Amino acid sequence: MSKSFLEVDGLSKVYPDGQGGELTVFEDIRFALEKGEFVCIIGHSGCGKSTILNVLAGLDEASAGNVVMNGKEVKGPGLERGVVFQNYSLLPWKTALNNIVFAVQARWPKWSKEKVKEHSERYLKMVGLDHALNRKPSQLSGGMRQRVSIARAFATQPELLLLDEPFGALDALTRGVIQDELVKIWEETRQTVFMITHDVDEAILLSDRIFLMSNGTNARIAESVKVDIPHPRARATIFQNPAYHKTRDYLVDFLVNRSGSALPEKDGSPKVVEPAKGVAQPEPAAAEPETESETAARAVNA
Amino acid sequence: MASLNVRAALLSVSFLILALGLWEMATQPPEAQTGMTEYEMLMGGADQESRVPPPSAVIKLAWTELSNPFYDAGANDKGIGIQLAYSVYRVLTGYLAAMAIALPIGFLIGMSPLMYKALNPYIQVLRPISPLAWMPLALFIIQDSDASAIFVIFICSIWPMLLNTAFGVANVREDWVNVARTHELSPIKTALTVILPAAAPTILTGMRISIGIAWLVIVAAEMLVGGTGIGYYVWNEWNNLDLASVIFSILMIGVVGMLLDLALGKAQKLVEYKE
């Protein structure tokens, strides 16, 4: 039996409910990630997405189940798993550059000072911040801080990148710009990424697969939705692809109508869904007329 | 319209002139109407001597003292600079010793809830003790008045540093600790590169409170142990009934205390960060 790069097996988290009982936030979470995949996970608040991510990061412990990466069980945090936190988590007394130097030094302690600096600067440049190397986080906007944080995570070249709603606190315009940057840096590095998001469009733009979680308590990863849109993708043109609308409709329908009752396969693994299967890929320049499904999606968005 | 600073300075100076003027007028000897009474002549005019000296006399004395601050004419007659240097030396020695103990223990207490719970009762009992209450015990055990004064400074400056360090360390944002954890930093590296800079502003606040308390206490301690130091100087001049010297040394205590506080304030600025 061939093993996947990352295997999550039977994860659950139980908290005391404060009245002597127990509260199972999620249970029997099973999934696998392959090397180089970009996977997003979507679910309503309270389903335990962040806890799953923290367990993968080694910052939190599951009540049951285990996580195996590269054949080794994940116990505690490690440099082979990089994390981008929602609130950036930059060290405020260090400049943007030194925040990255800090991480790069931890990753490769034997590197010379020049090599560390050169490497760190390269990654800051990738997110378009080469003009702000020596500014402290307090002198950067929210979007710029999150870019530094993303650059820090990519600079350590972890085998698995965990992004906890990285754009949740940003305004829509900034979010779009940084999504483009994330697409760019990911196309360059092809890192394995596991990301939490609340934004359906963001998930489709970035992911190869999207995990859909049912509602907590006792939340499960019910379905694994394949995003059948070729790379490289761009935010400005992706909605011209008919597969985009099929996928989007499917996701919105799940979140609005079915997330309360959806269940995974009997063996606990998520149901594999391909909503855009068989949809013909358009010629790159062809503009699509507005479809019925797009109108419906807007209605949901409104 | 002059800037706020200029206006504030003008107002400050006028307050000073007003206060000095009132003081000067209030301490003028009364006009001798019929010369001295027989009693006064017998006393050599002693009742006039016992008045609080006017500011002009204090300023005149300050001028002579400050123009030669380091003269040494025997045990009971040393320059103000020497006396202040003794006091500053004692304060800094006791303070540095307290730092050497308070910062590591504060770190320990801040990082370990177990140690916090175990040590907190002792800290709460020892902290409110007036540092001077330790003096007899210190004199008996150490058998040296100078070292006893230093010990008193040590004991009084340890608490604010200890508690602020523990508080600062315990309240470092969890995100930053998580950053250290995901980068696999060793505990020592985490303490030095993440927790120390994160807690530094709080620690420096404790150190600033401590230096203030130490400077308050040294005067009283030196009045007790005697020999040298600004506290001894004040008491000695009181025994000499030289009130101009007493007032002058009170002012010098204020000036040195202010300088110590300014130095710590500058250090605080260096480690501050904005989130």
In short:
The complex is a heterodimer of chains A (302) and B (275). By secondary structure, chain A is an alpha/beta fold.
Biggest sheet layout of chain B: none
Whole-number average pLDDT of chain B?
91
Which CATH class of the domain at 6-76 and 196-301 in chain A is shown?
Answer: Alpha Beta
Give me the side-by-side strand order of the main sheet of chain A: 6-7-8-3-9-10-11
- What is the H/E order of chain A? EEEHEEEHHHEHEHEEHEH
- The run of helices and strands of chain B is HHHHHHHHHHHH
Please give the domain count of chain B: 1
CA gyration radius of chain A, whole angstroms: 20 Å
**Low-confidence blocks of residues of chain A:** 285-292, 294-302
Number of strands of chain B: 0
Number of helices of chain B: 12
Q: DSSP helix count of chain A? A: 8
Helical fraction of chain B equals: over 70%
Query: How many distinct beta strands of chain A?
Result: 11
Largest interface by Cβ-Cβ < 8 Å: A-B, 24 and 17 residues
Question: Could you outline the blueprint of secondary structure elements for this entry?
Answer:
The complex is a heterodimer of chains A (302) and B (275).
Chain A: E1 6-16, E2 22-33, E3 38-42, H1 49-57, E4 64-69, E5 72-73, E6 81-84, H2 96-107, H3 113-126, H4 142-155, E7 160-164, H5 172-189, E8 192-196, H6 200-206, E9 209-213, E10 221-226, H7 242-258, E11 271-273, H8 292-301
Parallel strand pairs in A: 3-8, 3-9, 6-7, 7-8, 10-11
Antiparallel strand pairs in A: 1-2, 1-4, 4-5, 9-10
Chain B: H1 4-26, H2 38-42, H3 46-49, H4 55-67, H5 80-111, H6 113-126, H7 135-142, H8 145-170, H9 174-182, H10 187-225, H11 230-239, H12 243-271
Helix pairs in contact in B: 4-12, 5-6, 5-8, 5-10, 5-11, 7-8, 8-10, 9-10, 10-11, 10-12, 11-12
Structure description:
The complex is a heterodimer of chains A (302) and B (275). With 302 residues, chain A is of the alpha/beta class. Chain A has helices spanning 49-57, 96-107, 113-126, 142-155, 172-189, 200-206, 242-258, 292-301; strands at residues 6-16, 22-33, 38-42, 64-69, 72-73, 81-84, 160-164, 192-196, 209-213, 221-226, 271-273. In chain A, strands 6-7-8-3-9-10-11 form a seven-stranded mixed sheet, sandwiched between helices. In chain A, strand 1 (6-16) and strand 2 (22-33) form a beta hairpin. The radius of gyration of chain A is 20 Å and the shape is globular. The relative contact order of chain B is 0.11. The mean pLDDT of chain B is 91. Helix content of chain B is 77%, strand content 0%. Chain B has twelve helices and no strands. Chain B starts with a helix and ends with a helix. Classes of the chains: A alpha/beta (302), B mainly alpha (275). At the A-B interface, strand 6 and helix 2 of A face helix 9 and helix 10 of B.
